[in-house]
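To the wet lab folks,

You asked to see what we're planning to order before we commit. Fair enough. Below is the target structure as tokens, and below that is the sequence we designed to fit it. If anything looks off to you, flag it before the synthesis order goes out.
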């Protein structure tokens, strides 16, 4: 401010001197030289431009980095039978033009179903950022994320960290207050697959955020941070004697819709029709009633799930797939859009599950 004040004073003196000369007053030799004065003025203007330039760049950068997250909502139903996992993904849009929950291969033995902020749009880039594209789990030797809570195994930790690193730069660009509860995730992954020397498993990975208001002069400006994922095991249930029925989860949690397990236990008329129509279905439903889905026949369990899902989906779109520990992955009802597989792992055996649709014979 002092430099600007002195420069302004010199500029006023120069103007007064020039005025006196033109009016025949004070002689020119008592005035500063014009070229020196104009050189000072040029330097002053250049310094002002340098001072304003970073602010302009920051404002432009903030405008260019404006980000919008598109939320996906819906349900997942998982049926674990003798040697097979069957699962259905039902799309329930929670906002206008939202995309369906997407499915991707997260490693050689697990698939992931994505809910919440699965797609991000940056104002500076016309191409959206999809979290089901170019996914790569974190390396097992990444010391930054050792010791995750919730007793997650190393393979699940690497999956969780892979999504965390994708989310971190995107979430940090959210500067408006979000109406999310402290325990409400902005992003959720349902991981389905087989663990080595363990068997079938289903996990829910929740990604929550923290926000801090750092605005000044009454303007809201929020810093947003993504938290490390919270792991919840959905299957198998704790305790060897715990009943094993269908696994059902939905995003958001308050999403309306009938619970399929409840319909079966209550012998809903629609379920009763399936039970009476096919003796195979009657046997699988009896296994579910007794909490013994793991004893049901594989093909019959898949066929029953295929018949039950439309009862609760209504007009909603859904996809249905099945996977085994040794036999890989197959779509029963494929999704409407192509599936993105994980970045290939050089150590992955050729027989590992894939979400790619098998080519039809010519």
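Sequence we intend to order:
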């Amino acid at each position: 401010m002092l430099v600007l004040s002195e420069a302004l004073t010199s500029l006023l003196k120069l103007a007064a001197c020039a005025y006196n000369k033109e009016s025949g007053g004070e002689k020119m030799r008592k005035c500063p030289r014009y070229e020196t004065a104009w050189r000072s003025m040029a330097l002053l203007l250049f310094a002002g431009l340098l001072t304003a330039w970073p602010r302009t760049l920051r404002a432009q950068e903030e405008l260019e980095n404006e980000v919008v997250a598109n939320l996906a909502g819906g349900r997942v139903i998982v049926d674990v039978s003798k040697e097979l996992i069957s699962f259905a993904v039902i799309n329930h849009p929670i906002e206008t033009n939202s995309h369906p929950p997407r499915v991707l291969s997260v490693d050689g033995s697990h698939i992931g179903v994505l809910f919440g902020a699965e797609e991000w749009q940056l104002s500076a880039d016309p191409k959206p950022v999809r979290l089901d594209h170019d996914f790569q789990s974190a390396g097992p030797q990444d010391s930054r994320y050792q010791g995750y809570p919730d007793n997650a195994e190393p393979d699940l930790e690497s999956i969780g960290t892979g999504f965390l690193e994708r989310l971190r730069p995107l979430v940090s660009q959210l500067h408006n207050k979000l109406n999310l509860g402290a325990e409400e995730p902005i992003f959720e992954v349902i991981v389905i697959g087989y663990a080595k020397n363990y068997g079938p498993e289903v996990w829910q990975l929740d990604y929550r955020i923290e926000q801090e208001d750092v605005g000044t002069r009454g303007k809201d400006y929020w810093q947003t941070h993504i938290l490390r994922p919270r792991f919840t095991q959905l299957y198998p249930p704790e305790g060897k004697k715990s009943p094993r029925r269908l696994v059902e989860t939905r995003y958001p949690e308050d999403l309306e819709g009938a619970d399929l397990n409840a319909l079966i236990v209550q012998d809903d008329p629609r379920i009763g029709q399936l039970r009476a129509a096919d003796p195979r279905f009657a046997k699988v439903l009896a296994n579910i009633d007794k909490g013994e889905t793991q004893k049901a026949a594989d093909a019959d369990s898949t066929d029953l799930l295929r018949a039950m899902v439309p009862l609760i989906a209504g007009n909603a779109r859904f996809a249905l797939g099945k996977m085994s520990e040794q036999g890989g992955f197959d779509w029963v009802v494929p999704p409407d859009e192509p599936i993105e597989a994980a970045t290939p792992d050089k150590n992955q055996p050729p027989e590992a599950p894939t979400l790619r649709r098998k080519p039809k014979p010519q």
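Structural context that might help your review: The two ends are 79 Å apart (CA to CA). The chain has two domains: 2-64, 71-333.

Thanks,
Computational group
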